[in-house]
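Dear Dr. H.,

I hope your travels went smoothly. While you were away I took the liberty of generating a structure for the chain from your last submission, since the lab meeting agenda had it listed for discussion. I wanted you to have the full record in hand beforehand rather than looking at slides cold. The sequence, exactly as received, is reproduced here:
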Amino acid sequence: MIYWIIIIMLTFVLDQLTKAKAENIFVEIPVNLLGGILSLTYVQNRGGAFSILEGKRRFFIIVSIILILFLCYMIFKSTKNLYKFSYSLIVGGATGNLFDRIVKGYVVDFIDIKVIPVFNLADFFITCGVLLLIFLILREGGEELFLKKKH
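The corresponding predicted structure, in token form, is as follows:
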């Protein structure tokens, strides 16, 4: 169990450190990298992913808390480490964005890849965790997700 707590804490801390750096450096002057394909641009996101449901802060706080609690339960109940790893990435990322919503009233985004909306490390960790979870479900038929044992 300690490994999963470390992963959650590590993803949370990395997310918060990079957001703090973004708030201190990229607010005034965005930094262009890779010939302008990638830039570091400070954005205050008051919605969800891709700024959907902007201004629904309370809704996102409640949904995030429920999701985090459920996934912590799944980490405890799961028998397979890759599932636990995917849940831990999602929990760490969701906790980072939840912290922003509660403390600041918005989520700090700063990674700008021109073909997708601006995002942060928490979003990256959530996306990686969800993609891994989808892969595992498709590969194994979802038995672990629903806590069923094969007979």
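Two observations you may find useful: The first strand starts at residue 31 and ends at 33. The two ends are 27 Å apart (CA to CA).

With kind regards,
E. W.
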